[in-house]
Design a protein that fits this description.
Blueprint: H1 5-18, H2 21-32, H3 38-49, H4 51-56, E1 60-69, E2 74-83, E3 87-93, E4 99-104, E5 109-113, E6 117-120, H5 123-133, E7 145-156, E8 159-168, H6 180-183, E9 184-190, E10 196-203, E11 210-222, E12 225-235, E13 238-249, H7 261-274
Antiparallel strand pairs: 1-2, 1-13, 2-3, 3-4, 4-5, 5-6, 7-8, 8-9, 9-10, 10-11, 11-12, 12-13
């Protein structure tokens, strides 16, 4: 997930030699500032984006946009629904790979894709879905987090950023020590603007496992809330973009988040396998 310490120091030294003087001065100035707490950094983000006040007015949100992967010349539509307190449904058209649909109804996390069929999620995958489904996830107010802390100032996307470590609480069936890496995310907030410029973390699942990074850019006003209209994700050797075109509020229904039949069938099959065997006749 991270470069080795020795490589990081060597790379930093080389880059410092070639960095423009203005960038170096900005970094030096940022380094001398008192580093705020993680709570203060997140609260500032909520303030500059108006996220807290906008989300407080609504019960659901619908985001529509596009998915594109230039390396494979793949484009498609994207739609994401979310609702209080923790429901989410996302569908992405992936060209020849078909439509990827992911959901969380407050208890069950699931995924369907033509080439893979239906899956019910467990462990790290379920935890990540659960965190993303929180309607106010950007505010970090949930008790789903074990800890949040500021690690210092680090350059991200050529800008001095506050590096915030966020550690989620493990699910009941997760080993706390072994799962810490996958439960930990590093978020980078621009020192100057207060905006979230990106994240780094580790994902784990049946489809892919490994480090990932997200770059958030092109912030725009959607219904009074500033949101990154472009997210560039790098994961498992692939890079793709999610572009937001529109956002609307309070149009979701409970039926929208109901489990699809194929997911219900997977749950029923699990229940049968988990059921105790009938007693043998005497």
């Amino acid at each position: 997930m991270n470069l080795r310490r020795r490589s990081s120091l060597a790379l930093a030294a080389i880059l410092a030699l070639y960095a423009p003087a203005a960038v170096v001065r900005a970094q030096e100035a940022a380094a001398t500032q008192a580093v705020p707490s993680a709570r203060e950094i997140v609260d500032r983000f909520a303030q500059v984006t108006h996220a807290k006040e906008v989300l407080a007015k609504h019960t659901s949100m619908r985001v529509r946009g596009r998915f594109q992967m230039e390396a494979m010349q793949m484009t498609g539509s994207m739609e994401a629904w979310s609702a209080r307190p923790d429901k989410r449904l996302t569908s992405i058209e992936m060209g020849a790979f078909g439509k990827l649909v992911q959901g969380y109804d407050g208890k069950v996390g699931w995924m369907t894709q033509p080439m893979m069929g239906a899956r019910v999620l467990d462990g790290a995958e379920l935890l990540q879905f659960k965190l993303e489904a929180d309607f106010e996830a950007v505010l970090k107010n949930s008790d789903a987090y074990e800890s949040t802390r500021t690690l210092g100032i680090e350059t991200f996307e050529e800008k001095p950023c506050y590096k915030v470590e966020v550690v989620a609480k493990p699910l009941a069936d997760m080993d706390a020590a072994k799962s810490r890496e996958v439960r930990t995310t590093h978020e980078f907030y621009d020192v100057e603007s207060g905006l979230l410029l990106g994240t780094k973390g580790y994902q784990e699942g049946e489809m892919s496992s490994g480090p990932y990074s997200t770059v958030s850019s092109d912030y725009k006003d959607f219904g009074g809330q500033l949101m990154a209209s472009k997210s560039t994700i790098k994961s498992s050797g692939q890079e793709f973009e999610i572009l937001i075109d529109s956002v609307e509020y309070d149009t979701a229904t409970d039926a929208l988040f109901a489990l699809p039949k194929e997911v219900q069938d997977v749950l029923a099959s699990r229940a049968v396998k988990a059921a105790p065997a009938p007693p043998k006749p005497q």
